[in-house]
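To: structure subgroup
Subject: Chain for Friday's discussion

All,

I'm putting the inputs and outputs inline so they're searchable in the archive.
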Amino acid sequence: MTAPAFTQDAGRRFREMLVGLVFASPLYGAALGGRTARLRGAAPDPWVGEPEAARNLLAGRYVFCGEEILAPNLPPWAPQGVSEAWAAELHGFAWLRDLAADGSPASREAAVRLVGLWLGQYRRWHPLAWRPDVLGRRLLGWLGHAEFLLSGATPEAEALLLDGLARQTRHLARSAAFASPGPPRLTAAIGLVAGTLSLGLSRRALGRGLDLMAREIGQQVLGDGGHASRNPATHLAVLRDLIQARGVLMAAHHEVPEALQNAIDRLAPMLRFFRHGDGRLALFNGSREGVDGLADQTLVLADAPGRALTSARHSGFERLVARRTLVLLDAGVPAPAATFYGMHAGLLAFELSVGRERLIVNGGAPERPSVAWTRAMRATAAHSTLTLADTNAVHLDDAGRLKGAAPMVAAERSEAEGSVWIEAYHEGYRESFGLVHRRRLYLDESGEELRGEDSLIGRPRHPLNFAIRFHLHPQVHASLVQNGAAALFRLPGGSGFRLVVSSGSELRLEESIYLGAGPMRRNEQVVIHGIAEGEETIIKWFLTRIPAAHGSRGRGDRQGEL
């Protein structure tokens, strides 16, 4: 039986306190020394940076996780008021790729100066700067840009960098297994592999890194290639790390473990699964759209040609495609609380895009951590699904961990002559209200009609309000017609859709918030309101494409940012 989450947290904090006392001691710092390390060929960072981000860094603008710190004269290693995620991003040095992408003498000088200043201030253990996942990311950053950092360096500067790399790698050999479970532990393991191979350090430490990486792959990569977090953005990040790990091993002429290659071969098709027509990611379980072109670049480097699945049963997602129309449905069980945090209560939520344009979306997640906004965007109401009695379909704590047992979620799929039919249900409302939510979706072979049916099955103790939400992308314009019996959606390119609902339900146009990409933006949602009573409440709706008006123009993103 798994211990309660608060008990696990208390035990983890106690262990971290004890370990920190050991790591912070002068004796431990002396133990990290050793023979002079030599660079034996490090794999270059495979990811392309952004010159615009480099210009921000040169101007002293440090922008990470939606937060900006201005520090034109000194690096802000420990600024006040920033999130832990911001600080981890800074100390992880992945932003070196932005300076390298700019490639100017000023960028190289800034990179060398910042690394040198960090080594002067953080040569000894620090709880965040030397946290295993942050340290692993930093090793990958420094080693991946070693040529950029050492070009023209003095012997003294080169020796200082190599000593810093060796000390951190030796520490990571002792601490990688203490990293938080999930992606942080995998990053720590990959950093350890990179450090030991690139510097020719202990083969025993290399073995530890490879073993830990293999264990994490086995726990995190599901049978269909999805990531156990069920978060497309986390999925992409893990695939990128594994691609870099493979590059590190190949550069050192080390055999690539079969488990690593198999994981890449399975993760890449599932990344295709989660891409909308614009090339960016679907918004499930805390994901955001991501940087334009990043998923495509990752797929090229993955070199794994497998096609996207239509039904990902291990991950709990369904993909309906007909011509230019794509529907993605979350029909899975929330990830285990003991392993991954950050779950969302969007059971049976779906997204829809047409070509490169998104029509129906989920709310996304805040780029800048905030308890209030994170809680709000995890709610069932922030997703394109049914909400009963203004209550979440699953109970989550503020860390996004499931409270109690995971509800039953299941789906069945059938296809015929290009059309797709999905029937799914979840029991998230059974314990509280005695009701089961069933959702049926049918996409015809032309991709021009999506039929939906949402049912609440069971006899409630008293009438309950429900709301079926269709969150719209900020670039979509919506209006109610036929005295509120239908809604029209207009995409930026001019094409449109009509939503019609069965009689007995009220259709409303309401404001919403979109946190799927960039700053917070206003958007709209069309909501079917009704009352559940009797043994079964059935709501049918039809989303049909209508011809584009002659010479019509989309309104673009007229609503803009908040």
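Points worth raising on Friday:
The radius of gyration is 25 Å.
The chain is about 35% helix and 20% strand.

D.
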